[in-house]
Amino acid sequence: MSKSALITGIAGQDGFYLAELLNKKGYKVFGVMRGQSNPKTEEIKKSLPYVNIIEADLTDQSSLSRAIEVATPDEVYNLAAVSHVGYSFKNPQLTVDVTGKGVLNMLEAIRLTGGSKSVKFYQASTSEMYGGVGDNMPKTGYNEESPFHPRSPYGVAKLYGHWITINYRESYGMFASCGILFNHESPKRGMEFVTRKISNAVARIKLGKQDYIELGNLDAKRDWGFAGDYVEGMWRMLQQDKPGEFVLATGETYSIKDFLTASFKEIGITDWKPYVKQNSAFMRPAEVNILLGDSSKAERELGWKRKVDFEQLVKTMVQSDIEAES
Ligand code: NAP
Ligand code: F7E
Description:
By secondary structure, the protein is of the alpha/beta class. The protein has 11 helices and 13 strands. The site of NADP nicotinamide-adenine-dinucleotide phosphate has 26 residues, from helix 1 and strand 5.
């Protein structure tokens, strides 16, 4: 019999790539969408026609219990979250409710519907839990043993989600794993994130639809990979004999300026400065200066390694936006 998986956050970037992967592997895929009339529902029905959509909300435990009863999943991937770091400063309490307490709601829904021993659970933890401050980053990058120091309401909420997942593993014997994923991007990335904001603006500048782009801090550095590679790692975590924590990262870090250089190069522009204005509205009250990840454990135990490199990622995103905007 084919396996069944429930994905929360199906309408997000990772939800798309994970659904594609699990469908190819023969899973029956269920996806949680929120809202009485989510404008993305029609789009998801078209792009992921095999997904069985369930209306539920991470803040409503009874709706999650119903989702578990409907899907009877072998695996639950908890990808839903208020996921934008900047937005989390503006709506910190909503962020706690969804990104933090929402994880508890999902775990309780599994436990109270009798799934503690039968359902495998994946929690979308994040490199934002490390915070990228001072000298708490090892030279080879953050790993599963590195200390946490979150720098935003989002990071703090995710740290709660991370530890409550470990607590449910230790308390109730649940197969519950956390993927500590560093930034991963794609043409499906939301426009509010810096990589897609840049790739889309560069495409529009090429096509004469836009004159410049407004950005915040250009000096922050991130370990950017391709989302398609990372969902493969999530799946591998749930195929292990034992649950655990795993860092997924590329082991390389680049600044926003590097991303601008590579993106504008795609449209034949070597000096991007005339096309970029800085706007303090995009600065954050506390910044994560540098993130670099060390995924040696995932390489060793999961046989996982990123395939797409930085140049390929930028190229794919810019070319996809040129096509979409043409
Ligand atoms: P994303 O594109 O922002 O998707 C998040 C999804 O969560 C959205 O589809 C959203 O629904 C849904 N959602 C928000 N509030 C909800 C609620 N109350 N109930 C149910 N669903 C709700 O995020 P992503 O990039 O795919 O990332 C997936 C997960 O990995 C997130 O938890 C994120 O925090 C985490 N993560 C991401 C990265 C990364 O670099 N991408 C790195 C580490 C960890 P709507 O579509 O209706 O808004
Ligand atoms: O910012 C700087 C900004 O919003 C990256 C989420 O998926 O990855 C993501 O969080 C950097 C920051 O991603 C703009 O200050 C400059 O230093 O693309 P971002 P993020 O904050 O790294 C982690 C791993 C997650 O878990 C999150 O869910 O870019 N930056 N100017 C800007 N950022 C944005 N968004 N917009 C700007 O105009």
